[in-house]
Amino acid sequence: MNFEEGLKKVDEANQQIVEANGMVMDVISTTFIYSWKWWFCAALIVVPWVTWFFIRERKSTGRLLCAGLFIMIFSAVLDTIGIENGLWAYPVKVIPSPTLSFSFRLSVLPVLGMVFIQYKPRIHPFLKAVVYAGFAAFVGLPLLATIDLYKKINWQYSYSFGILLGMYLTAHSLYNLNSYDKVQPKAKKKTSSVNFDYFRRKQRAR
């Protein structure tokens, strides 16, 4: 296979992705939208973020969002890799995306992580990470699996526990960075003012 043939193969793959999105959209509009499971998934996208907006610690909003956005990005990348390699799947789709779950990865996990970081800050972060990862991996995912919102194919919940543990600890470290102080604009250098009176007096003396 030469380079041009490779480009054609990639174009064919991209076309298949577009067709897959169309198939998912068709299923959503004709079947899923009339199911309580679809509405439950939709609520999982909206309700956690709305709840967090009201309970967040306002003075730490920026720090919390930094931690939450890290969890979102990391989870999105992980989801894409896992689904593309047949490790797990999300049978019920809220949004026509074959390789991403907006309900769990982009809503529940980041909001839950920000809540854990915000409350009881004196508790050791590793203990919080264990509770966070354990709840998500051994309670949340199995519950989603029982109602067909998550399907474990070639994966173990213990793997998710380890990844979630490291993800939370990283998010906690980002929250506690020392570089969140407001950036002050640099003060303009004062131009040395010329004392014209001095020159005038000197001219008169001459």
UniProtKB/TrEMBL annotation:
List residues traversing the bilayer.
Answer: 36-55, 64-83, 95-117, 129-147, 159-178
Determine if Phosphoprotein is one of this entry's keywords: no
Known InterPro entries for this protein?
A: CBO0543-like
Task: Please verify whether the record's keywords include Membrane.
Answer: yes
Tell me the keywords, alphabetical order: Membrane, Transmembrane, Transmembrane helix
- Name the chain's protein: CBO0543 family protein
